[in-house]
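User: I need a structural model of MFS transporter from Actinomycetospora lemnae for a docking pre-check later this week. Nothing fancy, just the predicted structure tokens so I can convert them on my end. Input:
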Amino acid sequence: MAEDPTATPSDPAPTARSGREVRKVALASLVGTSIEWYDFYIYGLAAVTVFAPQFFPQVSSLTGTLAAFATFAVGFIARPIGGIVFGHLGDRIGRKATLVTTLVTMGVATTLIGLLPTYAAVGALAPVLLVVLRLVQGFAVGGEWGGAVLISVEHAPESKRAFYGSFPQLGVPIGLIASNAIFLVLAASMPAEAFSSWGWRVPFLLSAVLVLVGLWVRLRIEESSEFVAVKRTGSMALPLASVLRHHFPQVLCGIAMFTGITGIGYMAATYTIQYGTSSLGLPRAPLIAIVLVVAVLEVPLILWVSAGADRWGLSRTIVIGSLATAVVAALFLPLLASGSLLLIAVAVAAARWASAPMWGPSAALAAECYPTEVRYSGASVGYQLGSIVGGALAPIFTTLLLASPLGMAGAAGYLVLITLVSGLGAVAADRLVRRAGTRTPVRTPA
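Assistant: Understood. Predicted structure tokens for MFS transporter:
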């Protein structure tokens, strides 16, 4: 493949960072993404527990559930727009300033959701405001992922880019842990009526405090040295235009790679709770507890496989995860349908843990696909579009397929397909990187 004529191979070499600085940046990425995904996930939990009666009370149970899932999916639709806007800013003005902006934007939107009036108070205006704020959430998280991943990868030693690139990826299970934990505590400490009336607002309002913590951490880190080196030669006017013109195959690979990763992740994290409560009549608390415990154990697993991926190879590790997750995806829905909490726990654990080899190393591979001056835009757009095809649509398609003549077999086949697509995307991305010769040689730092 022809190299990007806008690339600048003569750029000054980035300055080596100390181990302390690398760890500080990784921690800042972890804290920030954990807060952002906490905000994103509490919306998902509220969507499957309280939003249908609070914001869509005039429709049937199935329609209300689909409407709540639709507002959840709206956030995904806004994510590519956020990826484009913040990707442009990140490639033009820097990773650090952009990440501060995304964090504040997300925190404001989440806090306002906690203050929203319900349908009973303002009628149809309530779901409209809910959708608008969900769009803002999606817009913010659309710019968050790319910046957090890149600032970690670009600070990391060349032989540990998958490992340090996994730190912002850990924000997903940690955000999942925090959101599920607070919902579980609140649901257990107050009557169901109180939780449905006002208790669900508390996790959203807590975001204001968490954002202040995240800002304190993020303002203390330095800009990526790779970006600083490129910035000296002048910023590209339209990074996204260069991505679409010279790196469009890499964008397609990113979409494919993240389709199955996000799809199975959201199925295990949010769909399980909705299906268990509405279709199986199971209590909400043990389902949330299952997701929480699985996410706690997922964190060290992601770190371990990501450290291994630096030795085994990024695409090879992702393919192994893709094949393992495809097997799990075939059994996921039948295990949920059993109604047994034990088998449901097995399904959730298998889905989240099998996908860890895909999720952890995918950040470093996405970063490798692009030169520094367009990396934020390229990585963000590929990931966010993949999250729509996978994360946003998986719960909706699964619900529709289960209600169709295809039933369980059709829904399970769909989940298997999207996980295999992730592995194919990783293989294709790796070949493009090798063909372009843009991969930084791995060497063990002294």
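Before docking, keep this in mind: DSSP finds 18 helices and no strands in the chain.
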